[in-house]
Amino acid sequence: MQMNNNRIAVLADSCNDIPQELMDKYHIYTLPLMINYKNASYRDRVDITPEEVYARFQEEIPKTSLPLPEDIAAMFKKIKDDGFDRLIVSSISSGLSGTCQALKLVADGIEDMEIVVIDTLNIAIASGFIALYAAELIEKGFDFETVIQKTQAAVKNATILFGVASLEYLIKGGRIGKVSGILGSALNIKPIISCNDDGIYDTVAKVRGRKQSIQKMIELTREKLGDHKNYYLAVCHGDAYTEMLGMKEQLQDLVAGAKIYVEGQISPVLGVHTGPGLLGIGIMLLED
C-alpha cells in the first residue's frame, strides 16, 4: 500500500460501502463486520457476497455481528506495520451498531498510534463519503488535526435516502428506529428512510407505491443539492440492479456533475437488515 507523506491512514468498516476501486485509489483500509449463519460465520464482503445472502434468505435469515476486538487490534497493528502512526477511522452510526464503540474501546488501548474514530451518524455510502473526504484531505497535504476537524465537521453534510420493498427485515433485525408507517404496508405506503441527527433510522417522507418512492427520493436529492456544485453522489441497491439503473438515468445531470460518483450493491450485512429490493441515494455536500 502506497504511503502518503504525512503518514496518516484511513480505515472504514465494511458497511461504509466504498467500492473496491475507490478503496484502492485512496488507499483506504477496510474492516469487515460479520454475518453469522447457524453453521458458519463469514466476513462481510470478504467471504460472502450480497447475492449469496439474498439467495439464502428462503432457508435462513442470518444474524450480523461486530468485528471482533482481536480483529480490530490486528487491523490497527497491520496499519502501524505499514508505516502509519496516525489513523482516522470512519464508523457507521453508533445509533445503529456497536461497531463505533468497539473501535473506540480497542483504539483507547493502543499506545504507539494516534487513532481517531469518527462516528458518522450514518450508514452505507453516506458513511463511506466521510472516509473518502478524509482521504482526499490527506492527499491534499493537510495535517492530522485539520483533517480530523474538517472531517468531523463534514459529518452533518452527508445524507442517505433509501426505500425498501418490505419493512419486515428492519423489524426482524431490530433496526426499525423511528420509522413509522409499519402498519402502512397494507396500504402500500412506502416510507423514505434516512438517518436523523442521532444516527437512527427515521422517516423523511411517506408515499404510496414503489414508483412514487423512487420519484420522491429523486425529488429530495435535488432539494438537498439545491445550487451546490461541489458534492459526492451515489446510487445504490440491494438486489434491485435494474431499478437502480432507472433511477440513475433520471439523475444523469447530477451524476455528471459529481466530484465523486459511486454506484453499486450494498454490503451483505446491510442487505440482511433491509432485505431484497432496496434502492438508495447518498449525497454529501462539500465546501464550495
UniProtKB/TrEMBL annotation:
Keywords of this entry: Lipid-binding
Signal sequence, renumbered to the chain: none
GO molecular function, one term: lipid binding
Protein role: May bind long-chain fatty acids, such as palmitate, and may play a role in lipid transport or fatty acid metabolism.
PANTHER family: DEGV DOMAIN-CONTAINING PROTEIN DR_1986-RELATED (PTHR33434), FATTY ACID-BINDING PROTEIN TM_1468 (PTHR33434:SF2)
Protein known as: Degv
Species of the source: Trichococcus palustris
